[in-house]
Write a structure and sequence with these properties.
mainly alpha, 2 domains, 76% helix, flat
Length: 125
């Protein structure tokens, strides 16, 4: 058997393997698990006060390890500034989420977006 024929057979086998893996991943990702098919009666209400307190705590915790991160990743001043700017933005987002949760609790109105509710539920559990 010639070298070209061996290369062709090997590349065909690899291509078929890749296609089989891709099809398997597509089927796996679209299949519904029994847990996801179950209908939840009513979601538990979010404890807004607890979630707001947790968001405040997370807004402060964003800065934990800042010096270590700068030492390991921030080899230049531009990187250090980008790290600080990213942490400031993350802290501000968590603080804004905390403020919206407190506003929703105080007003009793549904002023939270679906994403806000999901995040608040996750951090309050």
């Amino acid at each position: 058997m010639g070298v070209r024929k061996r290369i062709f057979i090997l590349s065909s086998a690899i291509g078929a393997g890749i296609v089989a893996i891709a099809i398997g991943l597509i089927v796996w990702s679209t299949a519904l698990s029994p847990a996801s098919q179950a209908v939840e009666a009513e979601p538990a209400p979010i404890q807004l006060d607890r979630a707001a307190n947790q968001a405040d705590k997370l807004a402060d915790d964003v800065y934990g390890g800042l010096d270590t991160t700068k030492k390991i990743i921030g080899k230049t001043e531009a990187r250090n500034q980008a790290i600080e700017k990213g942490r400031d933005a993350a802290s501000q987002k968590m603080q804004e989420l905390s403020d919206r949760a407190r506003q929703a609790e105080a007003s009793g109105e549904d002023v939270l977006s679906a994403t806000d509710k999901r995040v608040l539920k996750h951090i309050s559990e």
